[in-house]
């Protein structure tokens, strides 16, 4: 972790604003705007891009992926530009928690993978792109979004070692653990061999 040098009041403000940004449920907003119905009543009921894809609308899924990633990246970039690296990491964590536990949806949010990648790219673009590449390769091989996500987020810590960036290791490990917790049901289905493939309309 970087040394904490930012004024505590500004860090608290950063945490609140970042959480609120992360809480914006772009999946629900986009599907409603495109007349695709209530995302929480579709497929797994999750608000992320994978479930949006189950509507059959690839553009909506791509838009959700981009915006969910962007809200994490924007929080980090603004905090780093205005305050410094300590605020940037706090912003990333709080934006991520906002996505997982959004106040607007009674704290029932997504699983955080796209937001994780956005945060990672903003903190260290080389590590972020390497993790995204890991997701792509794994997805092509397994055709299973959850497997690709879990492998990719796990690889991020290893990529940090490769690129010699230990300052964000604790944050990355923390987010990885949270993603695994949110994927508990997926892990059970993976073990049972019932996890749906990419593009499947039902869980």
Can you give a write-up of this model?
Helix 4 packs antiparallel against helix 5 and helix 8 packs antiparallel against helix 9. The chain has one domain. It is built from ten helices and no strands. The longest helix is centred in the middle third of the chain and has 25 residues. With 203 residues, it is an all-alpha fold. The protein is globular and about 45 Å long. The relative contact order is 0.13. Helices cover 68% and strands 0% of the residues.
Low-pLDDT stretches: none
Average pLDDT value?
Answer: 91
What string gives the helices and strands in order?
A: HHHHHHHHHH
Distance between the termini: 39 Å
Proportion in helices? 55-70%
The helix tally amounts to 10
What sort of overall outline do the alpha carbons produce when their principal axes are compared? globular
């Amino acid at each position: 972790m970087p040394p904490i040098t930012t004024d505590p009041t500004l860090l608290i403000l950063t945490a609140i604003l970042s959480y609120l940004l992360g809480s914006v449920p772009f999946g629900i907003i986009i599907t409603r705007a495109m007349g695709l119905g209530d995302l929480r009543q579709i497929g797994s009921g999750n608000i992320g891009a994978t479930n949006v894809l189950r509507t059959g609308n690839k553009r909506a899924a791509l838009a959700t992926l981009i915006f969910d990633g962007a809200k994490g990246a924007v929080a980090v970039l603004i905090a780093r530009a205005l305050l410094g690296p300590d605020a940037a990491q706090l912003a990333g964590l709080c934006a991520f928690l906002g996505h997982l536990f959004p106040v607007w949806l009674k704290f029932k949010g997504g699983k955080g993978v796209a937001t994780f990648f956005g945060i990672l790219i903003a903190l260290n673009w080389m590590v972020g792109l390497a993790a995204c590449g890991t997701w792509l390769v794994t997805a092509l091989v397994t055709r299973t979004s959850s497997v690709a996500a879990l492998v990719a987020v796990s690889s991020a810590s290893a990529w940090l070692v490769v690129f010699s960036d230990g300052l964000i290791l604790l944050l990355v490990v923390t987010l990885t653990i949270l993603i695994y917790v949110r994927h508990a049901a997926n892990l059970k289905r993976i073990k049972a061999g019932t996890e749906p493939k990419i593009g499947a309309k039902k869980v």
